[in-house]
Specification:
By secondary structure, this protein is mostly helical. It is 91% helix and 0% strand. It is built from five helices and no strands. It has helices spanning 3-16, 19-43, 46-66, 69-95, 99-129. α3 packs antiparallel against α4 and α4 (69-95) runs antiparallel to α5 (99-129). The chain is globular.
């Protein structure tokens, strides 16, 4: 399979996802990027650490842009503030690697990931029953 067909398959897979599934997938990719960044920090791999943190930033920017502040109200505003905090943490960790600081972000993302997974499963169950 060529790289191009792999990308097309992945794109079709993402397009077939529900919005809730896409959100969970973004959080999954965010956790993977952050955990990889942690490993790179531990091994002193500066360039790889930077690449993973940039990937995490891109994902958080996508999450931030996908917020519907009109429909989400205060909840969306709080998520936006949290995403802004994460971006600030990434910039600080990029400049001065700090595992405790990164672990704090990972803990929050892990909790949100679990919550979104549960919500997506509940929506899927509700849709299946309808």
């Amino acid at each position: 399979m060529s790289y191009g067909s792999s990308d097309r398959y992945r794109e079709m897979e993402v397009q077939a996802m529900s919005p809730a599934q896409r959100l969970v997938a973004l959080y999954t990719h965010l956790l993977v990027a952050l955990r990889q960044a942690r490993g790179h920090i531990e091994r002193g791999e500066i360039e790889a650490r930077g690449e993973r943190l940039i990937k995490a930033e891109e994902i958080v920017h996508e999450l931030l842009c996908s917020l519907d502040r009109d429909a989400g109200g205060e909840f969306a505003d709080r998520l936006a503030a949290l995403y802004g905090w994460m971006l600030g943490q990434f910039a600080t960790i990029q400049a001065k690697p700090n595992l405790a600081q990164l672990d704090a972000v990972v803990a929050i993302v892990t909790e949100l990931h679990g919550a979104w997974q549960a919500a997506a499963a509940q929506l899927a169950g509700g849709n299946a029953a309808a």
